[in-house]
């Protein structure tokens, strides 16, 4: 086997071991019977592993740190599903949704303390604080559509990128290019997610609808308020997306972020092909 193939095999084994470690940490007989365990988020996994690799960490340290990051990320993400779980006729779903999120994210104390990563433990704690503050701003007034689109995107980027920024700042404090890469890839991912929401004919607060609201005339705003209060769906929303060119606007931001990410990647050595391919996959 060629040296390059050996290295690729080692890297694939590392990723697989991280996935197995996360699965083992999330395994809880009772919780798993009620709530489906989340699949580790691919971008968080690949970027986290790449940062650890660039910092020269060994395989065991990388597994522990990336597993910890994903446990926190997925634990916080489960809290976003509480409203959906609360709609279930079985009250246990809502209660266990809260407990599952706390259960997953709380494990980071043990994992990082055991590995001696005390500084990172503190940085992740600050990151969790920032993420919760961003979520609080988003849910403070759910019916308020006056929120600026760029501010909305910044809050989403805080929610999905702060843990990775904390990891980068701790392990690669001089890594400006890595800081840029995390920022551009997280923004690309957030914009892709927002564009995907355009197929949902529900008037809820998201980037495309905030953009429409800022451009809509008075009659359109009256109709949108009625749609919001009814909680119903209406495919006429798509006509407003076309009228105001919101998909074109958001897609242009997506292309810009993906292009910037690819430019930074060109200056970084040793990145996995799977990570390098992400910007292209997100703009398809």
Molecular structure report:
The chain folds into two domains: 140 residues, no CATH class; 111 residues, no CATH class. The chain is built from 15 helices and no strands. Helix 3 runs parallel beside helix 8. This is Heptaprenyl diphosphate synthase. It comes from Tumebacillus algifaecis. InterPro entries: HEPPP_synth_su1.
Features:
284 residues, mainly alpha, 2 domains, 15 helices, globular, disordered N terminus
Class from helix and strand fractions: mainly alpha
What's the pLDDT, averaged over the residues? 83
Q: Could you say how many structural domains there are in total?
A: 2
Q: What distance lies between the first and last C-alpha atoms, to the nearest angstrom? A: 35 Å
Oligomer: single chain
Q: Which descriptor suits the 3D outline?
A: globular
Rg from alpha-carbon coordinates? 20 Å
**Tell me about the biggest sheet?**
none
Helical fraction equals over 70%
Instruction: Note the total helix count.
Output: 15
Poorly predicted tracts of residues? 1-7
Number of strands: 0
N-to-C SSE series? HHHHHHHHHHHHHHH
Give me a quick take on this structure.
With 284 residues, the protein is mostly helical. It folds into two domains: 140 residues, no CATH class; 111 residues, no CATH class. 77% of the residues lie in helices and 0% in strands.
Itemize the secondary structure elements and their pairings.
Blueprint (H helix, E strand, L loop, with lengths): L2 H24 L2 H6 L7 H13 L4 H20 L3 H5 L5 H24 L2 H22 L9 H23 L4 H21 L10 H9 L2 H13 L6 H8 L1 H21 L6 H4 L1 H5 L2
Helix pairs in contact: 1-4, 3-4, 3-8, 4-6, 7-8, 8-9, 8-10, 9-13
